[in-house]
Amino acid sequence: LPTRRGVGHVYSSAHTSEEAAAQELRAYISASIGGEKADRLSFRKIKYVPGHRAEFWHRNCVAVGMSAGFVEPLEATALIMIEAAATILSAELPATRDVMDIIAKRFNRRFTYYWDTTIDFLKMQYALTSRTDTDYWKDCAREDSIPDRLGELLRLWRRQVPNRHDFPLAEEMLPAASWQYILYGMGFVTESRATAHRFNDAESFERYVNEVREIAQRYIQHLPSNRDLIKKIHQVGFQKV
Length: 241
What we know:
The protein is mainly alpha-helical. The chain has helices at about 20-35, 35-40, 75-90, 100-125, 135-140, 150-155, 175-185, 195-200, 200-220, 225-235, and strands at about 50, 55-60, 60, 70. Strand 2 (about 55-60) and strand 3 form a beta hairpin. The longest helix has 28 residues, at about 100-125.
């Protein structure tokens, strides 16, 4: 942020205590501001139980945002869910009561799918971790902790790249590209039949990879750094749509 830096520590109460988490956070802050200042800080604990409602639309009440669910504090999936709910409500809110139950049923079915898909997406990032330095990371990567649908997709993606056929809705919260970014950013390997057919030798494959790198580099050269972008927004604000 342009005016301050927010610092926090997200931890699992099943793997550490509040006191140990506070001590670890204070040690982290001490490296920046010194131990004396860090010792004078007080921490605000925000406790939450991850999950979502079984029913989001009941009679004339609709749960949106935090009232609908909360599953992970470090990503912006909750913001996407709010936008989707607002969009669907504005488009489908019935003028009369007689069809509200039909709209509510469709809304509940869609958002149950959205939340389950989001949970799979988040869990994938923990399941693919290479970290084994604590019990927390070991537990996150246990095979029996992976949801059935996610387990099936990961097995499938060992043989083919994630694509639109893996996600049946026309308006997916997380399209195939989103899954690809996480998968391959974490070193996941797909033994793609399409790739094997297209590149029958190492030389042609290497040539293709270099072409992709050159295109990416051209795009990067025309993009501002993250800090420059934030400074610009702070100076002139967002462009009005």
